Amino acid sequence: MDRREFIKKAGVGFAAGSVLGTPAIARAQKKFKWKMVTTWPPNFPVFHEGVVRFAGQVKELTEGAIDIRVYAGGELVPPLQAFDAVSQGTVELAHGAAYYQAGKAPASQFFSAVPFGLNAQGMNAWFYAGGGMALYREVYAPFNVVPFPMGNSGVQMAGWFRKEIKSMADFKGLKMRIPGLGGKVLAKAGGTPVLLAGGEIYTALERGTIDATEWVGPYHDLRLGLYRAAKHYYYPGWHEPGTALELAVNKKTWAGLTKDFQSIIETTAQAVNLWMLSEFEAKNAGALRELQTKHKVKVLPLPASVLKELKKLSKQVLDEEAAKDAMFKKVYDQFKRFADETGTWSKISERAYLQALEL
Fold it and tell me: What is the model's pLDDT at position 26?
């Protein structure tokens, strides 16, 4: 009778753990204290908030077994060295954007943003259902990093300019903070791309060290105060139509986790991925209104002739990069096939619906 009673109680306990959503086995596992660095300034809305949210949810779901301390950019390592810190095993986790790794892995840029490429919905479809994740892992394997999508800004703005953009001639000699493949397109147009961390952008624009900058979108651009340094605010974000952010996990750290803990990391990253995109979509509208009404910012469309030429130059850049790097070409070919396939559908779904709203 005692044995039967013990089994009965043990079964109830396991079921309770399952219902609460935390694996009962988690209580018996070893404890982990991890460091997580980011490329974002301290308390940066949505970006840094999302990282803190991730750390909190992982701790809750593992009942404290995984305790992550988050360090903003510069607090532990320089912002643009976050990925390297994970790769070298100095820290366990990092959050940033894949195009910051362009110098060491050119193909990484596809996992953040591609000029005239996929929007946020398309990027998520590619990652989760179109083969993008397998390529993502393959590109990062030599760096001992296991990546996960964790956030998306949606379609960004084309940027802030101290002078108007009326034709492609206005890009000649233009010094602009713009990373990734978009920067290469700017260079081909005759401009000079500059890579700066977020905390350095306003000062550089205000002092005239740069003539223009892209950052994110209305909500973050407003908070950074970029409207005080430049009054011409252009759209659309041709260079970053759906910029994905990434969670980078050290390979040895990842391998040291049990399957249930790996599942918690992965699903929490997915949840924060959705949360961050939702925050951007919800907050950009009000910020745009404030920029226009309170700060008298000129919100302007890039001329059609400029967009047409930028698209042409973008294809040239992608083709040239593919010719120089085999992995870049491999990812590019798969990315193009997926974009073409989904583009056929989006023309009669998303695009057609948006056009119908204008009737």
Answer: 46
Question: What phi, psi does 132 have (nearest 5°)?
Answer: -65, -35
For 97-113, the pLDDT digits (tens) are 999 999 999 999 999 99
d(Cα 265, Cα 185) in Å, to the nearest integer?
Answer: 36
Q: 10 Å Cβ neighbour count for 319?
A: 11
**Encoded tokens for 267:** 């699903």
User: Is 192 buried (19+), middle (13-18) or exposed (0-12) by CB count in 10 A?
Assistant: middle
Q: Rounded to an integer, what distance in angstroms lies between the CA atom of residue 141 and that of residue 5?
A: 50
C-alpha closest to that of 125 among 351, 359, 343, 353? 343
Q: Return the C-alpha torsion angle 280, 285, 287, 289, nearest 10.
A: 170
Query: Could you report the per-residue pLDDT of 261-283, keeping only the tens digit for each?
Result: 999 999 999 999 999 999 999 99
Strand partners, 93: 36, 249
Residue spans of beta strands (DSSP E) within the chain:
32-38, 66-71, 93-96, 145-152, 159-161, 175-177, 192-194, 212-213, 232-235, 244-250, 298-301
Record the pTM: 0.88
